[in-house]
Design brief:
10 helices; about 250 residues; single chain; about 75% helix; mainly alpha; globular
Length: about 250
């Protein structure tokens, strides 16, 4: 099987180095956290203004798994942070966003192959959970049942979230790490580990599964040299997670 080749940067221009990548990644992550927190605080303030007797701690805990709040926070923060990634890349002379992130349209055979691998991995992890008698996480069910608008929830979870997370983890961060002493495989492990850590709403079994999926996403990026492949895989995974709740 042949994969589309990506143009290599000239020797004059290099991607952001390791420490610059780390620094910019921390800045983008901070903006992401702050924007999501502001949405949460805004919803809390509005809700408590209408219901003064509510306990703010209990309200905050409830809103953490509220599908409407998650949709709003995701649809506001993720496009903002994708724009920040693009801005940081534009500041690096010699690179376009497309070239830096390897946004090359893949062939259909590669797309279907890796989406098939995604389906196989999902079924494999589900089978393993059933084998060890682990109950599925309630987080997806909670956000689905509490969502005020299911189309917005699907847009947030199956489009906006995969787009930002892949642009950030398998795009900007991964390219910076692999250009350093970490190399390809170090970048695969580090970016996948950091991606898994942000999913603290899940238990250790689910986080382990997310880490494994991250390894596969990064491998797809390496093999195809197209960020569109892991974006599609991630979107497929999230859409299926919501659909499983809808059909249950």
């Amino acid at each position: 099987m042949t994969y589309p080749s990506s143009p290599e940067p000239s020797s004059t221009f290099q991607r952001w180095g390791l420490w610059a990548t780390v620094g910019w990644s921390l800045c983008i992550a901070l903006v992401f956290i702050m924007s999501q927190t502001l949405v949460l605080l805004g919803v809390m303030w509005t809700t408590m203004a209408q219901n003064p007797g509510l306990d703010p701690v209990i309200l905050a805990q409830r809103l953490e798994t509220d599908g409407g709040v998650l949709s709003l926070a995701t649809l506001l923060s993720n496009p903002l942070c994708v724009g920040l990634v693009a801005l940081v890349i534009r500041w690096r002379q010699g690179f376009t966003v497309k070239r830096y992130l390897e946004l090359h349209w893949p062939n259909w055979r590669s797309l279907f192959l890796w989406c098939g691998i995604t389906l196989a991995l999902i079924h494999g992890i589900d089978f393993l959970k059933a084998f060890i008698d682990r109950a599925p996480s309630s987080f997806t069910t909670d956000i689905y049942q509490s969502a005020q608008s299911l189309p917005l929830l699907y847009l947030a979870v199956a489009v906006a979230a995969p787009l930002f997370e892949e642009v950030f983890f398998r795009g900007f961060m991964f390219q910076g790490l692999r250009s350093s002493f970490f190399g390809d495989w170090g970048a695969v492990i580090v970016s996948s580990g950091l991606w898994a850590v942000i999913h603290l709403q899940y238990d250790v079994y689910d986080v382990t599964g997310i880490f494994i999926f991250g390894l596969v996403l990064a491998l797809a990026q390496i093999r195809t040299r197209s960020l569109y492949i892991p974006i599609a895989m991630h979107a497929l995974n999230n859409a299926l997670a919501l659909s499983q709740v809808a059909l249950s």
